[in-house]
Structures are given as C-alpha cells and as structure tokens.
C-alpha cells in the first residue's frame, strides 16, 4: 500500500473554504480542550465519537458536530472521511486517535488533512525509533542493556505492548533478573519467546516531570506550555505501604496511568527543560521531516543530581495537557490566561490560515 500522498492532501486543503474550517478529533484522550480551544479561536468543531461516549462533548458543549460511529476505529472508514472532508476538517491527533485509527491507516489511507507531522507518530510508538530520535537530539536517556549478564545497577525491564506497564519489573542484578523472568514464565505472564524482546534499561530514581512543549512553525519557536506528573496505579498505592508490609503482601507493581496533576519545576531546572525541547525539534527536523510540528512531550525523571532523564516522548498532544485546559503556570507567562494546548493548536491553525501558510503545518 502506498503512503498518503502529500500532493493529494494539499489539493484537498486547496478545496477547503478557508473561512469555514472545522477542527475535528476523536472523542477521547484530550479532545475536550482540543475542541474547546478551537471554539475559543473561532472554529466550528466536530467530534468523532463511539456510540454511548458522547455525553462529555454534549454536556461540556465543546462540539458543534457529532459523527457517531459504532467503534472508535471506524474513524478511518471512507464514509467518515467523506463527512470530515465535507466539513473542511483539519484533524488534530492525540494518543487515542493514534491507537484507534492505527498507524498503518494514518500513514496509508487516511486522507483528511492532519495538523502536525503524521510520519512522526510511528517514531513515538516504536521504542527503537523513539530512542534513535532522542539520541540524535543528544538528550540524556536511560542506558540500555542488550545483555542481561551486563546488569550492574538497578534496571527496569519492559516488554513490548505491555499496556500500562503491567509486567514491568525492577531488578538490580543478573540473578534477580533471571529469577523474576523465571517466575513470570511460570505464572504464564510471558513465554520463553518474549524474553529476547525484553527491553532492559537503567532504572532512574527521581521525580517525574512530563514536560509539554509546542513547536510553532509560524514563529519558529519552542514554547514551554506546561508540566504534569502522573498518578499511576498500583505503584502509587504500593509505595504508601511500609516496606516491611510490601514484602509481605506480594503485590506486583503496575504503572497504569489513572490521572495527572500539574506541577512546577524548580526554576533553576528550566534552562535544561528548554534546551531539551530545542534539541528535540532540531533532531526531528533532520530525521523525520517536516519535524516536530505542534505539541510534543518529554516524560522524564529528575535525579538528585538535578539531571533530567527522558524515558519516553510523545510527538502529539499528550494526556497530561488535560491538567491545563484553562492554561498552566508556564503557558500563562507567554500567553496570559486560558491557553490550553488545544487552544494553542487552534491559534496556530488560525494564524497559518490568515497568512496563507496552512500547507506548512498540515500533513
Ligand atoms: P507509558 O506507560 O507512558 O508508555 P512507560 O511504559 O515508558 O510509559 O513507563 C511507565 C512508567 O514506568 C513511567 O511513567 C514511570 O513511572 C516508570 N518508568 C519508565 N521507565 C523508567 C525508568 N527508566 N526509570 C524509572 N522509572 C521508569
């Protein structure tokens, strides 16, 4: 199957009435502020929503148009794409959109103009590509071990497709790694074949900051929009139990994200945060053109040496942006009150549309 053709996307965009653009997204993840922000910037909004999930969009009055589908993955169906194009829609991607539409569809047959770089979505989804991009940027990432025999410090062991970090474990020696793997095989969590796919990386002990950036092509500037930290179940619950009891109850830790809370970083760390964002944008523009266009997020741990280590990145609106639907501590400094990530995206679309530069921010 051939990739979505840029000329075709541009010709669809050419056929749009510039005064009548709809900002559309899938009804999940971060769609509330994407839609709300678009309305604030004067756009009509549309939500593609699974039957039975429409209540928040009705009750919060963020959507003008509802495209109700049997299941979220139907967003890629021809009739849904037709409706979106007929409304002059620009799709704003987010984590659930990527998960439900699927990377293959997004890359090959989703012919609706999309805000940002559709090609970079695979880079955040596949661990090796993600590491390649972060390495190119020269930001500090956890050390990776290719051989369990080399484990010389605490490591975190991750398995591909482990949703919510179920089955992730921490080990501090080769023996402990082998014991834990054996016990997981015994309990049927993984098979012998999975062991080779285990991703082993340095365990970074620190505090969690998920840093939200917006790279504006219109202004050629990386903006620091906000920061959150995550509520993760059951690990947050587990650490509230004294160590002695943790051993007794034999609960296995998981990292299922259940919510986010806004945070502010120690001010002296901000130069590092800006530098990391700038580097990511530079690296992405070199290896995944047209680069990091719009929202992205670096999920980090800050150590007691005040070093920020990035263990994961997202190259679209991140879930943690839900902590600043009304603006964040940082977005306030640059934009004043009320600038959510969704509104920032809509502002970029508005400026691009007014200056006839939409083609630069759409793929
Ligand atoms: P996601 O679930 O967002 O894909 P990961 O699977 O990479 O993120 O990690 C899940 C959680 O595990 C993180 O939010 C963090 O709490 C913890 N974690 C991941 N990698 C590391 C690491 N190298 N060191 C310490 N903690 C980590």
Briefly note the CATH topology name of the largest domain: D-amino Acid Aminotransferase, Chain A, domain 1
Q: Name the CATH superfamily assignment of the largest domain.
A: ATP-grasp fold, B domain
Strand content: 15-25%
Number of helical segments with 4 or more residues: 16
Structural class: alpha+beta
Counting structural domains, the number is 3
The chain-level mean pLDDT equals: 95
Can you name the CATH architecture of the largest domain? 2-Layer Sandwich
> What is the H/E string?
HEHEHEHEHHHHEEEHHEEEHHEHEEHHH
User: Between the first and last Cα atoms, what is the distance in angstroms?
Assistant: 18 Å
For the largest sheet, list the strands in their spatial order: 11-10-9-12-13
- The portion of residues assigned to helices is 25-40%
**Cofactors, ions and other ligands in the entry:** adenosine-5'-diphosphate
- The gross shape turns out to be globular
Describe the model.
This protein is of the alpha+beta class and 363 residues long. The protein has 3 domains: 6-114, Rossmann fold; 125-139 and 205-337, 2-Layer Sandwich (D-amino Acid Aminotransferase, Chain A, domain 1), CATH 3.30.470; 144-201, 2-Layer Sandwich (Dna Ligase, domain 1). The protein is 37% helix and 22% strand. The protein contains 16 helices and 13 strands. It has helices spanning 6-15, 31-40, 55-59, 78-86, 95-101, 103-108, 121-125, 127-137, 174-186, 192-195, 235-238, 243-249, 270-287, 329-335, 341-354, 358-361; strands at 22-26, 44-50, 65-69, 89-91, 144-145, 155-158, 169-171, 199-202, 207-216, 221-234, 255-262, 294-302, 308-314. A 5-stranded antiparallel sheet has the order 11-10-9-12-13. Helix 2 (31-40) packs across helix 15 and helix 8 crosses helix 13. The longest helix is centred in the last third of the chain and has 18 residues, at 270-287. The radius of gyration is 21 Å and the shape is globular. The protein binds adenosine-5'-diphosphate. Residues 142, 156, 165, 201-204, 208, 230, 232, 255, 301, 311-312 line the site of adenosine-5'-diphosphate.
């Amino acid at each position: 199957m051939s990739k979505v053709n840029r000329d075709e996307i541009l010709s669809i965009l050419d056929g749009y009435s510039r005064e009548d653009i709809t900002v559309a997204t899938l009804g999940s993840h971060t769609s509330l502020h994407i839609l709300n922000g678009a309305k604030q910037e004067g756009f009509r909004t549309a939500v593609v929503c699974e039957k039975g999930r429409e209540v928040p969009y009705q009750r919060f009055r963020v959507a003008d148009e509802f495209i109700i589908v049997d299941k979220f993955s139907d967003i890629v169906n021809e009739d849904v794409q037709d409706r979106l194009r007929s409304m002059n829609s620009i799709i704003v991607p987010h984590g659930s959109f990527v998960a439900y539409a699927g990377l293959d569809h997004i890359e090959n047959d989703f012919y609706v103009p999309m805000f940002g770089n559709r090609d970079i979505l695979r880079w955040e989804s596949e661990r090796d590509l993600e590491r390649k991009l972060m390495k190119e940027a020269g930001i500090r990432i956890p050390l990776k071990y290719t051989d369990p025999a080399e484990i010389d410090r605490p490591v975190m062991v991750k398995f591909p497709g482990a949703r919510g970090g179920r089955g992730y474990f921490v080990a501090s020696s080769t023996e402990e790694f082998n014991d834990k793997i054996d016990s997981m095989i015994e309990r049927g969590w993984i098979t012998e074949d999975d062991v080779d796919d285990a991703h082993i990386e340095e365990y970074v002990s620190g505090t969690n900051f998920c840093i939200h950036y917006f790279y504006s092509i219109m202004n050629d500037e990386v903006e620091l929009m906000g920061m959150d930290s995550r509520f993760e179940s059951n690990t947050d619950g587990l650490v509230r139990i004294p160590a002695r009891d943790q051993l007794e109850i034999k609960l296995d830790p998981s990292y299922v994200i259940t919510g986010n809370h806004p945070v502010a970083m120690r001010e002296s760390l901000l130069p590092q945060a800006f530098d990391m964002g700038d580097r990511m944008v530079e690296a992405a523009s070199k290896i995944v053109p047209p680069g990091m266009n719009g929202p992205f997020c670096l999920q980090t741990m800050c150590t007691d040496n005040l070093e920020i280590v990035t263990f994961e990145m997202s190259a679209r609106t991140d879930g943690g942006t839900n902590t600043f639907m009304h603006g964040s501590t940082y977005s306030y400094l640059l934009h004043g009150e009320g600038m959510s990530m969704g509104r920032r995206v809509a502002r970029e679309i508005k400026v691009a549309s007014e200056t006839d530069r939409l083609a630069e921010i759409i793929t």
